[in-house]
Amino acid sequence: xxxxxxxxxxxxxxxxxxxxxxxxxxxxxxxxxxxxxxxxxxxxxxxxxxxxxxxxxxxxxxxxxxxxxxxxxxxxxxxxxxxxxxxxxxxxxxxxxxxxxxxxxxxxxxxxxxxxxxxxxxxxxxxxxxxxxxxxxxxxxxxxxxxxxxxxxxxxxxxxxxxxxxxxxxxxxxxxxxxxxxxxxxxxxxxxxxxxxxxxxxxxxxxxxxxxxxxxxxxxxxxxxxxxxxxxxxxxxxxxxxxxxxxxxxxxxxxxxxxxxxxxxxxxxxxxxxxxxxxxxxxxxxxxxxxxxxxxxxxxxxxxxxxxxxxxxxxxxxxxxxxxxxxxxxxxxxxxxxxxxxxxxxxxxxxxxxxxxxxxxxxxxxxxxxxxxxxxxxxxxxxxxxxxxxxxxxxxxxxxxxxxxxxxxxxxxxxxxxxxxxxxxxxxxxxxxxxxxxxxxxxxxx
Length: 446
Description:
By secondary structure, the chain is α+β, with helices and mostly antiparallel strands. The chain has 8 helices and 24 strands.
């Protein structure tokens, strides 16, 4: 993965621009003093046992001039390890005042030697108050490779969060490992912010990343059940649909949850879908406009293509349709929430019909999103080709079915909120689809 400086994303997140650091001195002069102590203490002029920091190891585009809490105007410096001395050497991070090192971030591994995995690169650095202590934390993404197995050379992201304790920083082990376990192998700072939000909402802690926690948004959705639940008019009054299902998402990762209300029935296998998003005031929900017929999705495993440049997520589904027992087709579509509108973009189509008037044998034809003829093989991989410049992930939707004997829409607020929270945790990757089904059943019957 190329080094990159992450721009401002998610609620005005501040990520500082890189500034160059002079390496014009001769190699033997490329060093600055830093305390040999691994404790979290700033240097003074009386520090002894100084070691040298080789400035040739500084990663320029991941080093920043910043105003950092009570440290003042400092330079945050990311340094690659000296693998010639030890193949398992780890990255290190420093604060500098002019050319003087004033602080070294705590080592995650003893003596900065990794227990496993080989350092590859630094993918992002950010500074943000994530725990409402009025001090910016330092968030870094360290890429490493395992070198083992067929996937061993694919870089993976390890997240490190350093909390400012006033005069020192502390490595926040629990949240760092929690986020590392959940984000994709090529996780971005955007993924990190999503998981920080999830971490604090799950463990009952507050965060300033969003105006409202996940829990409070779930409560807003529950209180607006009469807006999103699917009903039919009956002589005795509105009747809830027994063929519907509901699930929680954050399609565009903007921090505001959506609830999808979906119904699939009829001989034409027609899916009717309405998607509601928590509003910007976090006190209600609003129907999202769309441009057509929603595709059916495989709830357990959904392909998602992600374009980092424009923050676009494409969720792949298929529109099934029948015009008779032997006539019909499948249209691959991408669901995308962008600028407040849901788009269902055609990827490719498969059509079938009888070979002859009295024949049960079917003839298949395939076209791409422009209408050009393609092969069956090209149809099967059309989304991979169309979005080949995108990153690819997989997600699951925690679909809650409206069972006849235990109607979901009429459950108590508390039970409904628990089920919707588990649906969100499925979408965000905290629990698997199979785990969701087991937990959802226990909640229903408790």
